Amino acid sequence: MIRAENLTKRYGDTTVVQDLSFTVHPGAVTGFLGPNGAGKSTTLRMILGLDAPTRGHATVDGRPYARHTAPLTRVGALLEARSTHPGRSARHHLTALALTHGIPRSRVDRVLALAGLTQVADKRVKGFSLGMGQRLGIAAALLGDPATVVLDEPVNGLDPEGVLWIRTLLKSLAAEGRTVLVSSHLMSEMALTADHLIVIGKGRLLADTTVDALVRASGGAAVKVVTPEPDRLRDLLPGAGITVEAPDTLLVTGPDAPEIGRTAAAHGLPLHELTPQAASLEQAFMALTHDSVEYQGAPA
Ligand SMILES: Nc1ncnc2c1ncn2[C@@H]1O[C@H](COP(=O)(O)OP(=O)(O)OP(=O)(O)O)[C@@H](O)[C@H]1O
């Protein structure tokens, strides 16, 4: 379990993380979301003892990261910077890491297989693609069989197969009862991967919630209704939010699809289509973080 309490980080006059408190529970994938520059990496670095908080503190399983005697067996982390020696092979890199951290050598083959690197295990890392380097970083994070896994933007640079692999891996790590915290600035990716979301903007907590609850909080889903008598339907749904999409097509918020169907049927109003629309998660995320985005494009 990861706990952040009132985490605050200032660089000079700039506060990049402000009074951030949250808990990341085991057995679920928790997405750590925010626009570019929101403070995600800084927060993860404070959790991992790489940056000192200006105020507040973070613990993993009840202790600050640095106070764990064998941190790699407690917490596996992938940060954005690569830290492999380019002349070494993947196997050599992982073996050196295992030996210096008291991790059995047998774990090296295990994590090479888990990361899909067995075939290239003896090739020099300098010939690795971005995706292979990312897989090696994840193999290193899992080397100590840690109960907590922290990954900063793990899908960066991965091809679609790699993205799917990460998604499946994260879910299986959580299903094994591990605590999994994964940062991203892509809502669409997190929607497919995460069970829980922590959203920050300009260093502040904006939401600590589930994907479903975020959609509902952002105004919920609309229902697309196609009818040859849109004006009559409008009159029959006085409290509803109605947007006209086309002369015969309305987007209705408020009443759900069964309620609209019942009302129409009770008044003999023909419906040609009645389709619940899942609110776009990307829209929900943008609505939530709108005021926290540093640079916004002006509308065309
Ligand atoms: N060492 C530093 N000195 C000064 N400012 C810093 C330092 N590290 C980060 N920042 C600033 O802190 C803010 C948050 O950066 P951070 O990398 O934590 O954000 P992020 O949410 O991870 O962004 P991204 O999605 O772009 O990686 C940014 O404005 C960044 O410029």
Automatic annotation (TrEMBL):
InterPro entries per UniProt: AAA+_ATPase, ABC_transporter-like_ATP-bd, P-loop_NTPase
Keyword set, alphabetical order: ATP-binding, Nucleotide-binding, Transport
Domain named ABC transporter: residues: 2-227
GO molecular function, one term: ATP hydrolysis activity
Chain coiled-coil ranges: none
Family from the record: Belongs to the ABC transporter superfamily.
Protein name per Swiss-Prot or TrEMBL: ABC transporter ATP-binding protein
